[in-house]
Design goal:
Mean pLDDT: 96
Distance between the termini: 59 Å
CATH architecture of the largest domain: 3-Layer(aba) Sandwich
Oligomer: single chain
Largest sheet: 7 strands, mixed
Shape: globular
Helix content: 25-40%
Bound molecules: ligand MGD, molybdenum atom
Number of strands: 29
Structural class: alpha/beta
Radius of gyration: 25 Å
CATH class of the largest domain: Alpha Beta
Strand order of the largest sheet: 7-6-19-18-17-8-9
Length: about 750
């Protein structure tokens, strides 16, 4: 949606200049390696074209010169001896064996195109899967390649599509758009902007923003705001850096957030603390919500969530009395089978208190440019193909999404229903180590495919186990690119400063391959021409963008009152009633509960108490670490040294109770499987709740043992089992026991 002229940043220097004998190039950090945001950076190269330094750009309105450890260590990634530097092919019979043959790009691309075309001719394009991992600037190019080939099947092999998708889809259904915390990121002058207001309270719910900087949200904005007087409420079982500085820390039992949110709604409604004007004018279904919330009195919910009732009541009052309050939520909301009900309950707190589209509240995240969300190139998908998209009976998913139900894809791999699959293109994705629940199912299911391509920068367990062709990508200093960030409405230029050698960018690879499938879909002569096309709404050509990057879309508050949030230009929200639907018509029409609801996580102390004898500990997984992005950076020495092995964070009382000790290797086991890690005794975790790292493998391990993947994968304990809508899965709640490796096996 274009809303007028883009704003551009005035820089004190050109995009490239000399300083102390070095060339400084302004750019954006993105991928590879993994990152979720795209900070403004300065790359310092010497006369031999070597990267010698990287700094945050102090003129950036986004990160104000700050960078994370992974960016500061980018040199070790770029020059890592572990990188794959040439295309490689392996015989299908040798999958899992370290037997690769180096080939030229021409040969690799011919081989890929021939094999993919053969499958299309023999079995149909729908039998070829396309996948990509999280949040990279790779996604839209992978989508477009799929459309050029003619397949409708994009998948992450991720139970319940459990990353941001449930929150985005949920808010789109109930409020017409995703809403994000207003930390003044839409303004160049930020906190000083006269229209901006520092929130009185920010609720940080199932998110650790300073470590994770997730989804376009720069975590240190929270610290900036705390310095300007903002108070915080943290909802997290773990003691985080912000939690110890917050007014309220609710150490909720994993997977019970919906009950907590419903209890807070009940307090706000019963005590008449909600915003009557906003509810009367802009909300639909308030009475029904009030009725539902009555089932969640604070003292009952205190038992469910293991949070004292007075804290629930106090936090609810504090949110309702704040002018404004805002929400920064995280992936813990999606990592439960009840993701849709949970997200709906949490967002309703901020809706009925009138914190929508106000300065310092929650602002609509309208899409920048039209290339995101699986839409770019969708017109090239042949007629009738979308009906073949693998969604099972998840009708909301089929209607609201352009991708598959990943759970149904795994069923399809195993049962050959509704049809047999034959190939896969995996780009920026290490599913066996990260996204896949029960990774053995995916490993075995994928073995049935005739042809698999992996596009990555390092050899991974997924590539070693499954790939027939490996196409090596370059890192971000080695390529031009665009950063189009969700979470802040800007477009930025990434500028190449290093020679990529015999590696290529994802964009170039997809342009080369895409042209062969459908030249009309990929008509450009260069990636730069393609970027200019992507940028067309902004009014800038790619070359011009370098100088003025980043450019921001126009922005204003109270857009629902001005007809700026609906496609028809009327006031209100893009929902069937034009209001925020606390009782959701779309859910109702798909046979789903129209109101927020809570169901005990399964297994769990509330649903399967009989399992507690055998599996006494509640387990959450995957809390982000400073030094790695999921399965990445395990082979980068300095980053690995910060956190050398997977750990289980466990309260020292629990460690004693279950007979395990600091730094000991243990098995964490549930009814489905087990994974190995080291004990870390810490009071950061409450008694009865432990937290295990995810996405572990040993790049130094035996390739033919898939780098210890199946020993270390915590997802051995996570089933493919989404919620009733198909969205959300229990990556953050199960029941386990722990025991020393070698004991009782
Ligand atoms: N350094 C680094 N940054 C990353 C990533 C990375 O791997 N490394 N990954 C990126 C990706 S893809 C994502 S999705 C984001 C995610 O980033 P976040 O949303 O911050 O996700 P997590 O760190 O998994 O979890 C956040 C907090 O939720 C708590 N938690 C665990 N279970 C529950 C629960 O049931 N309820 C509640 N309320 N809290 C719970 C954890 O203790 C943790 O402190 O980070 C992104 N950024
Ligand atoms: N138990 C448990 N499991 C989880 C989670 C959890 O909290 N708990 N979190 C889940 C979440 S939220 C997510 S999003 C997934 C993440 O899952 P993934 O996105 O698969 O994770 P990554 O390891 O970051 O990336 C996969 C691969 O992409 C490569 N790569 C990085 N950048 C680029 C690039 O620019 N181009 C290309 N071609 N390749 C690149 C990396 O080398 C890596 O091998 O994991 C999920 N798994
Ligand atoms: Mo994620």
């Amino acid at each position: 949606m274009s809303m007028g002229e883009y704003r551009k940043l005035e820089h004190s220097k050109p995009w490239q200049y000399e300083e102390d004998g070095l060339t400084v190039t302004r750019s954006k950090a993105w991928t590879a390696p993994g990152c979720h945001i795209g900070c403004d950076i300065k790359l310092y190269t010497d006369s031999e074209g070597k990267l010698v330094r990287i700094e945050g750009d102090e003129e950036s309105p986004y990160n104000h010169g700050r960078l994370c450890a992974r960016c500061l260590d980018i040199k070790e990634v770029v020059y890592s001896p572990d990188r794959v530097l040439h295309p490689m092919i392996r015989e299908k019979a040798d999958r899992g064996k370290d037997k690769w043959r180096q080939v030229s790009w021409d040969d690799a691309i011919d081989y890929v195109v021939d094999n993919m075309n053969n499958i299309k001719e023999k079995y149909g394009a729908e039998t070829f899967l396309f996948t990509h991992g999280t949040g990279r600037d790779v996604m839209q190019y992978a989508d477009r390649l799929m459309y050029a080939y003619g397949s409708p099947n994009m998948t992450g092999l991720f139970s319940g599509l459990s990353c941001y998708v449930p929150r985005i889809a949920g808010m789109s259904c109930t409020a017409g758009s995703l809403y994000i915390a207003d930390c003044s990121q839409a303004w160049f002058d930020r906190y000083d902007n006269p229209e901006y207001k520092v929130p009185e309270v920010m609720v940080i719910w199932g998110n650790n923003p300073i470590v994770s900087n997730a989804d376009g949200f720069f975590g240190h904005w929270v610290v900036d705001l705390m310095k300007r007087g903002m108070k915080t409420i943290v909802i997290d079982p773990r003691v985080t850096w912000i939690a110890v500085r917050s007014e309220y820390h609710l150490r909720v039992r994993p997977g019970t957030d919906a009950a907590l949110a419903l209890a807070m709604l009940n307090v706000i409604i019963q005590e008449d603390l909600y915003n009557h004007d906003f509810v009367d004018l802009w909300c639909y279904g308030f009475d029904e919500l009030a009725e539902r919330a009555k089932d969640f009195p604070a003292d009952k919910v205190a038992d469910i969530c293991q949070v004292p009732a007075e804290k629930i009541v106090g936090a609810a009052r504090m949110i309702a009395n704040a002018r404004p309050a805002t929400l920064q939520w995280g992936v813990a909301i999606d990592h439960t089978r009840e993701a849709m009900g949970t997200g709906q309950a949490v967002s309703a707190i901020f809706e009925i208190t009138g914190n929508i589209e106000v300065p310092g509240g929650l602002i609509a995240n309208t899409q920048i440019l039209d290339v995101m969300g699986g839409q770019w190139g969708r017109e090239f998908l042949p007629e009738g193909m979308d009906e073949k998209r693998i969604c099972g009976n998840y009708q909301l998913m089929r209607t609201a999404m352009t991708s598959c139900s990943d759970d149904e894809v795994v069923n399809c791999l195993e049962t050959d229903q509704p049809y047999k699959l034959h190939g896969a293109w995996l780009q920026g994705h290490n599913p066996l180590a990260c996204m896949s629940a029960d990774p053995r199912r995916v490993y075995e299911g994928m073995q049935k495919l005739d042809f698999i391509v992996v596009v990555d920068l390092f050899m991974t367990p997924t590539a070693m186990g499954l790939a027939d062709v490996f196409l090596p990508v370059c890192t971000f200093p080695e390529r031009d690119g665009l950063s189009l960030i969700c979470g802040i409405q800007q477009a930025g230029a990434m500028n190449q400063v290093l020679d990529p050698g015999d590696t290529k960018s994802d964009m170039e690879i997809n342009l080369l391959v895409g042209k062969r499938f459908n030249p009309e879909c990929w008509p450009w002569d260069s990636v730069q021409d393609m970027f200019t096309e992507v940028l067309k709404d902004s009014g800038y050509k790619y070359d011009e963008l370098r100088e003025v990057s980043p450019v921001y879309v126009p922005f204003e508050y109270h857009r629902h009152e001005k007809g700026l949030l609906r496609l028809d230009g009327k006031v209100g929200f893009e929902t069937p009633t034009g209001r925020i639907e606390l009782w959701c018509n779309i859910y109702n029409s798909f046979g789903l509960d129209p109101l927020p609801y809570f169901k005990e996580p399964e297994p769990g102390p509330g649903s399967t108490p009989d399992m507690l004898d055998e599996y006494p500990l509640v387990l959450t997984t995957g809390a982000r670490r400073w030094n790695s992005f999921h399965s990445e950076h395990r082979q980068i020495p300095r980053l690995r040294a910060m956190h050398p092995e997977p750990v289980l964070d466990i309260n020292p009382e629990d460690a004693r109770k279950y007979g395990v000790k600091q730094d000991e290797w243990i098995w964490v086991e549930n009814y489905l499987g087990r994974a190995k890690c080291m004990v870390n005794e810490t009071y950061e975790m409450p008694e009865g709740i432990a937290s295990a790292d995810h996405a572990w493998w040993h790049p130094e391990g035996d390739p033919e043992n898939l780098y210890d993947l199946f020993d270390l994968a915590i997802n051995n304990l996570v089933p493919f089992k989404p919620g009733p809508s198909g969205f959300g899965a229990n990556y953050k709640s199960t029941l386990v026991r722990v025991y020393k490796v070698g004991r009782g096996e």
